[in-house]
Automatic annotation (TrEMBL):
Gene Ontology molecular function, alphabetical: 3'-5'-RNA exonuclease activity; nucleic acid binding
PROSITE patterns: SAP (PS50800)
Protein name: ERI1 exoribonuclease
Organism: Urocolius indicus
Domain of life per record: Eukaryota
Keywords: Cytoplasm, Exonuclease, Hydrolase, Nuclease, RNA-mediated gene silencing
Main location: cytoplasm
Subcellular location: Cytoplasm
Length: 194
């Protein structure tokens, strides 16, 4: 028969573990893996219902819905684990606010591509912005920006035509973070909106 999986608020705020947050042998990762398996077996309607229960976006193809629910569950489990351990005070927060290709009405089949990759490095102790990174990205799937996208973002076709593609810009971001010793000397968390 078919297995039914239940993901609830109780499951998200479930049992605590004492292993190191960076140790993948920690039981929290087994819980996440088991839940991911359940999510993989859900129908599109079940996914949409569960996303609505958590007040998350319910539009998109089945794979997008699965990824959204998995990411939500993983984030909740890891945040709960960090709060319990009490030693998760990050040195920095990297705030990211991507701009992406878009069309008016946001059709569900439209593939969005990042066209601007901006980062703000916030020191969590001083609450001061210590540095920024900003680079435009050349879209490859839908290389021509819609008039709606240009109007909404202020990013022109000429700007993205001259930009590097996403893999190169991502490498530039990684190098920028490496130079600031994020993940080695300093702890950090990524914060995004969207």
């Amino acid at each position: 028969g078919t297995q039914h999986c239940r993901i609830s608020d109780q499951q998200i705020s479930g049992k605590n573990s004492t292993a190191n947050a960076n140790d993948f042998s920690d039981p929290v990762y087994k819980e996440i893996a088991i839940t991911n398996g359940c999510i993989n077996r859900m129908t599109r309607d079940e996914l949409r219902s569960k996303l609505a229960e958590f007040k998350l976006e319910t539009r998109g193809v089945k794979d997008v819905l699965k990824k959204r629910l998995k990411n939500y569950y993983k984030k909740q489990k890891l945040m709960q684990k960090e709060a319990i351990n009490g030693d998760s005070y990050y040195d920095y927060i990297c705030v990211v606010d991507f701009e992406a290709t878009c069309e008016e009405g946001n059709p569900p089949e439209f593939v969005h591509e990042i066209i601007e990759f901006p980062l703000v490095l916030l020191n969590t102790r001083t609450l001061e912005i210590e540095d920024t990174f900003q680079q435009y990205v050349k879209p490859e799937i839908n290389p021509k920006l819609s008039n709606f996208c240009i109007s909404l973002t202020g990013i022109t076709q000429d700007i993205v035509d001259k930009a590097e593609t996403f893999p190169q810009v991502l490498q530039n971001v990684i190098e920028w973070m490496r130079q600031r010793e994020l993940g080695t000397k300093y702890t950090y968390s990524m914060l995004t909106d969207g």
